[in-house]
Design brief:
The complex is a heterodimer of chains A (332) and B (367).
Chain A lengths: L5 E14 L2 E16 L4 E5 L6 H8 L7 E6 L2 E2 L5 H8 L2 E4 L13 H11 L8 H11 L16 H13 L5 E5 L7 H18 L2 E6 L2 H7 L2 E6 L2 E7 H6 L4 H9 L39 H5 L5 E2 L6 E2 L17
Parallel strand pairs in A: 3-8, 3-9, 6-7, 7-8
Antiparallel strand pairs in A: 1-2, 1-4, 4-5, 9-10, 10-12, 11-12
Helix pairs in contact in A: 3-4, 3-5, 4-5, 5-6
Chain B lengths: L27 E12 L2 E13 L4 E5 L6 H8 L8 E9 L2 E2 L5 H7 L4 E4 L3 H4 L6 H12 L5 H14 L5 H4 L9 H13 L5 E5 L7 H18 L2 E6 L2 H7 L2 E6 L2 E7 H6 L4 H9 L43 H4 L5 E2 L6 E2 L5 H12 L7
Helix pairs in contact in B: 4-5, 4-7, 5-7, 7-8
The chains are: A alpha/beta (332), B alpha/beta (367).
Pfam family, one (chain A): ABC_tran
Protein name (chain A): Dipeptide ABC transporter ATP-binding protein
Family (chain A): Belongs to the ABC transporter superfamily.
Chain lengths: 332, 367
């Protein structure tokens, strides 16, 4: 197995909540998350709102300061690296944002937006910055002659391509993509997914791909981590997660997706209630309040993320697998 | 119209109407609806000659991308367009009453009572300053001027309970910010249904929600429809939601209807190249995950400067197949073979079937 490009251990982010001037608790947005990303690999982080997937992504590129845990990128600990130390690493580690309207400066031309990472890092590519920017625009399927246009002259899908070109400017090794297609229309979404897949293959990029849409994740990722209330509940290869989900939450999530090919929804697992508040998550297993398999033990022991049958798929559940064989359970 | 005074329990006086299309007139009939906005940049033809109908107890899904005119259509039905800005022509008949040209005051009386809307974003549709219960009670009292405060309150609490909000009496006193996203959407639905409307328009009702909560809300809408026997229009961009909830589908593109029919007809035996494009560009949980998606090339059209002829022709793979017709003649919606299935496309029917079998049926979710 190749060495990991990104190693995340026990990553935690708590946002303090103040009641007047007194700290009165913390939103436990991310609460001890472990995963690795190998070079050229795409890892999907999927979950519902409030599960901590975006917070995790922002910590990876150090837009947020982790409360605890460690992030190791290309062999270096970047958990608390300072700005100056981070600068050379930022070249290898880029982010694509969800909203193609808010993430581009409306007063800058496309050329300037895409050139910015080069200028900030004082890099002059062979042939000059303009030539490189035009190559990048072409790479993401935009007309290089649109160099002097402003973001408002482009549609949502095209703007997202500009954001992608900017992320690629420094030839990164890893891109964190936070819901890169969820603001786009269906027909445009497919264009952008295909573009990202193509770039991933051609440039051998690693991705941490954050999305709430399970079908989008399935079409893009090699491996998938399912998050719930700040924890990873299940992680594994794409086919294992989609064909043989073990955690009750993964199963419920997959069965809740309305699929065009299905008209019958009778076999669906129906979860009751909403996700509890991360301010005061349930004791033991955080999913137990909505889980149909929950037993006494789930309220007291927090299940660890353990590999199933020595494989690569790991599940944090006392009673994983299909219904009806609950009794064997996990051993710890 | 045989409106019963809203009886909370059971609706015993409503006759059992069979599932199939019966002899009764559809509750909502829209004919040749056109909505135009005069802007500085030019005339926007947001809706350009759309016709459809919805019977009681049935759900019509309106599908399209941004700018297709789906939301403008629903706002026109509810009479929510500013008369100074929008020019509306055509016919909209709700329960036999003609709405286009009706004085604002009369439309207002129908709105909320005979027809109601569920919006996408419940946080901006609910007033943050008033308790949820008070807003629902007020919606009831507007249309039941004789109802006292207590009666309106009881009705609101009852509705909150009926949409699955636990402890409705306590929740009545709370403000929108104290509700979670799913609970807020339930409260919105309670408000829309408080006057027992015969027509409910839900504009992307679950788009802002998580999938597990979306499943709950879709179930709730289906249950409430079975109970109240209302006609529902569900506006969405999500073909999966339509497939699961709707009986009929209307596909819109550039302000026009391009295909119409039952869910089975439009989603399983689609006839319009745009519908094909939508189906093959949606990522699915089934099928080959490694295969590339098949997107529709280009971007949705500008409504100010709509392409000539068939508005879809610049993005259509098959546009050149019948000479210049796609570029010059606007295709009319006509029968696609099966009863009730209509399509607006110049391709001859047999060629469409052949192309579908050959190019589309094998790939993606259109399988």
């Amino acid at each position: 197995m190749t060495e990991a490009l990104l190693t995340v251990r026990g990553l935690t982010k708590h946002f303090p909540v103040r009641d007047g001037f007194r700290a009165s608790g913390a939103v436990r947005a991310v609460d001890g998350v472990d995963f690795d990303v190998r070079p050229g690999e795409t890892l999907g982080l999927v979950g519902e709102s409030g599960c901590g997937k975006t917070t995790t992504g922002r910590m990876l590129v150090r837009l947020l300061e982790p409360t605890a845990g460690s992030i190791e990128f290309a062999g270096r600990d970047i958990t608390h690296a300072r700005r100056r130390e981070l600068r050379p690493l930022r070249q290898d580690l880029q982010i694509i944002f969800q909203d193609p309207y808010a993430s581009l400066n409306p007063r800058h031309t496309v050329g300037r937006i895409v050139a910015m990472p080069l200028q900030v890092n004082r890099i002059t590519p062979p042939g000059g910055i303009k030539k490189r920017v035009q190559e990048l625009l072409e790479l993401v399927g935009l007309n290089p002659e649109h160099y002097n246009r402003y973001p408002h002259e482009f549609s949502g899908g095209q703007r997202q391509r500009i954001g992608i070109a900017r992320a690629l400017a420094l030839r990164p090794k890893l891109i964190v993509a936070d819901e890169p297609v969820s603001a786009l229309d269906v027909s445009i979404q497919a264009q952008v997914i295909n573009l990202l897949r193509e770039l991933q293959r051609d440039l051998d990029l690693a991705f941490v791909f954050i999305a709430h849409d399970l079908a989008v994740i399935r079409h893009f990722c090699h491996r998938v981590a399912v998050m719930y209330l700040g924890k990873i509940v299940e992680i594994g290869d794409r086919d294992d997660i989609y064909e043989r989900p073990q955690h009750p939450y993964t199963r419920a999530l997959l069965s809740a997706v309305p699929d065009v090919t299905q008209t019958d929804s009778s076999g669906r697992i129906r979860l009751v209630g909403d996700v509890p508040t991360p301010l005061n998550p349930p004791s033991g297993c955080r999913f137990r309040t909505r889980c149909w398999k929950a037993q006494e033990r789930c309220a007291t022991d927090e299940p660890a993320l353990v590999p199933r049958d020595g494989g690569v798929q790991a599940v944090a559940c006392h009673f994983p697998g299909p219904d009806g064989q609950d009794s064997d359970g996990g051993t710890r | 119209m045989g409106r019963s005074e809203s009886v909370p329990s059971g609706e015993p006086d409503r006759p059992e109407v069979p599932e199939q299309r019966s002899g009764e007139d559809p509750y909502l009939q829209v004919r040749d609806l056109r909505v135009r906005f005069d802007t500085e940049d030019g005339l926007v033809r947001a809706v350009d000659g759309v016709s459809f109908s919805v019977e009681r107890g049935r759900t019509l899904g309106i599908v399209g991308e941004s700018g297709s005119g789906k939301s403008v259509t629903s706002l026109a039905i509810l009479g929510l367009h500013n008369a100074k800005r929008a020019t509306i022509s055509g016919e909209i008949s709700v329960g036999g009453r003609q709405l286009v040209g009706l004085p604002e005051e009369e439309v207002r009386r129908l709105r909320g009572r005979d027809m109601a809307m569920i919006f996408q974003d419940p946080l901006s549709a609910l007033h943050p300053y008033y308790t949820v219960g008070r807003q629902i009670a007020e919606a009831y009292r507007v249309h039941h001027p004789k109802a006292g405060k207590r009666e309106a309150r009881n009705r609101a609490v009852d509705m909150l309970g009926r949409v699955g909000i636990p402890q409705p009496g306590k929740r009545y006193e709370q403000y929108p910010h104290e509700f979670s996203g799913g609970m807020r959407q339930r409260a919105m639905i309670a408000m829309a249904l408080v006057n027992d409307p015969d027509l409910v328009i839900a504009d992307e009702p679950t788009t802002a929600l998580d999938v597990t909560v979306q499943a709950q809300i879709l179930d709730l809408l289906a249950d409430l429809q079975a109970e109240f026997h209302s006609a529902i229009i569900l506006i969405t961009h999500d073909l999966g939601v339509v497939s699961q909830v709707a009986d009929d589908v209307l596909v819109m593109y550039g302000g026009r209807a391009v295909e119409r029919g039952s869910v089975a007809q439009v989603l399983r035996r689609p006839q319009h190249p745009y519908t094909w494009g939508l189906l093959s560009s949606v990522p699915s949980l089934h099928g080959d995950a490694d295969a590339d998606l098949v997107p529709i090339k280009g971007n949705p059209p500008s409504l100010i400067n709509l392409p000539s002829g068939c508005a879809f022709h610049p993005r259509c793979r098959y546009a050149g197949r019948n000479g210049d017709r796609s570029r010059t003649v606007v295709p009319e919606l006509r029968s696609a073979g099966e009863a009730g299935h209509l399509v607006a496309c110049h391709l001859p029917a047999d060629e469409r079937t052949r192309l579908y079998q050959q190019d589309i049926a094998q790939v993606g979710v259109a399988r």
